Amino acid sequence: MKRFHVHVSVENLDESIQFYSTLFAAQPTVLQSDYAKWMVEDPRMNFAISTHRQPVGVNHLGFQVDSSDELRGMHAQLEAADSQLVQEDEQPCCYARSDKYWVTDPTGIAWETFHTLGRIPMYGEDTPVFNHGASAVPVPNQAATGTSACCVPAEKTAPNADRADCCAV
Predict the structure, then answer these.
(1) Per the confidence metrics, is the pTM higher than 0.85?
(2) CA distances from 104 to 44, 72, 138 (A)
(3) Which of 108, 127, 133, 164 is packed most tightly, with the most Cβ within 10 A?
C-alpha cells in the first residue's frame, strides 16, 4: 500500500517541529538535529522536514511503497510520466537507506517513489540527480538537459560543480 510523501525544507527546525506536531497531533517518529519525520496514518502520509541546503518550501513529493515488488511495479508508470526517470539503489538519505525512482513533473517538481530498506545513523546524501528546489520556484529537470546538476541551487554549487559528491553530508 502506498503512503504519500512530502518533504519540506525549513529554516527553523524547532519552530517547524512544534507547528507540525500540533497540526498532526503527534510527535515525530524520527527526530534528529537537522531532520524530523511523521508517519501519519490519517491520511496515510510520510511527512518529513529538514534544514539541508534546499530553498525553504516544498522540497519534493512522492510515494513510499511497502515492498521491492511494489516499487518495481511502479517503474513503467513513472517512466511513462517522465522518460528521464532516475533509479537509485540503496541510496543513503534522510537517516534511511532506500531503493528509489525519481521523476520530475513539467514544472520542475521532483517526485520520489521509494522503498525503505532500513535506518542508518546519518542523514546521508540528497539526491544529486536534479537541481530540484521548492515548488514555489520550480527548476527545470537538469537530467534532461545533460548539464551538471546537484541538489542545491546552481549558484550555491558553482564552486563544487565538478564534484560528483556535491550533495554529500
Answers:
(1) no
(2) 23, 18, 10
(3) 133
